[in-house]
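note to self: dont lose this again. the chain is below, predicted strucutre after it. 83 aa total, dont forget to put it in the shared folder this time
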Amino acid sequence: MVEVADTSLAWDRDVKAPLYAAAAVPLYWVVDLTGGLVLEMRSPGTSAYADLHVARRGEVLGVDGLPGVRIALDDVLGAVPPP
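---
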């Protein structure tokens, strides 16, 4: 699951993330356009994700279940100026 947050970061992180975790969504990304980063959440539990990685420009993320697929954050955030 991927969300893109411009003004909805708190909602996506604090309200939606626990719901997705409870529904056992294995991977949840929140693309924070304002902060120029991606919140990568893994290992869902009953009310939260156990693992949170804050990915920044220059990083490359893999996608669970899709071996060999790599996504460069610079490509995702390319049109957004750094904060």
